[in-house]
Amino acid sequence: MLRILGKASSINVRKVLWTCAELDIPFEREDWGSGFKSPNAAEFLALNPCAMVPVIQDGDFTLWESNTIIRYLATRYGGAHLYPAEPIARARVDQWIDWQASELNRSWSYPLMALVRKSPDYQDRDALAAGCRDWTRNMEILDRQLEKTGAYVSGEQFSLADIPIGLSVNRWFETPLDHADFAAVRAYYDRLNQRDGYRLYGRNGTP
C-alpha cells in the first residue's frame, strides 16, 4: 500500500491526498511536519534531504516533491484522464501545474504569513500591500483562463492541473484580504466543491 508522509493540513500533502482520491489509490498516511514528527529527523532526511513534506513510498520506490508525486501517481495508476499521454494535451496540463508553483504560489507567501499565520516577521504594510497586489494579479490571470475554457484550468475536463490550482483557490478565499470579484474563479470554486476528493482534502484538509 502507498505510504504518505506528511500532515493532512499541509497544502502540498493535500495535493497527494486529493490525487489518491481521484484515482482510488489506497494509502496509509503518517503525520510529519510542524506540530508532529520532525522532517529534520534522521529517519526522514534519509528519504528526503530537503526535510519537506510530502514524501511517498510506493513499494521500494521513494519520491518527494509534491507536483512530481502527483504526476507519478497519475502515470502509475491509470490517470490518463487526468494527465494525458498525448504531448500537446499533457503540455497544457503541465504549464498550469508549473505556473502554480513558480508564480501563484510565490505571490501569496507574504500575505499568508502576515494575515493567516500572523508572523511578527511579516508585518511590513508596504510589503503586504505589494504581496496582495501580486496575488490579485495572478488570480486575474487565472480568472481570464477560466473564462476562456468555461470549466477547468487546462480545458473543458478536470485535469491534474486543477489539483494544485484548486488548492490555491481555496487559499485565496480563506485568506482575510480584500478579494477582487473574479466571477469565473468563484464559479470554478463552486464546481470543484462538487468533487468528493475536493470536499475531503481541498478545504484546508477538513471536510
UniProtKB/TrEMBL annotation:
It is an enzyme of class 2 (transferase). The keyword Transferase applies. Residues 86-207 form the GST C-terminal domain. GO terms for molecular function: glutathione transferase activity. Pfam families: GST_N_2. Keywords: Transferase. SUPFAM superfamilies: GST C-terminal domain-like (SSF47616), Thioredoxin-like (SSF52833). Residues 1-81 form the GST N-terminal domain. Its EC number is 2.5.1.18. This is Glutathione S-transferase. It comes from Pseudomonas iranensis.
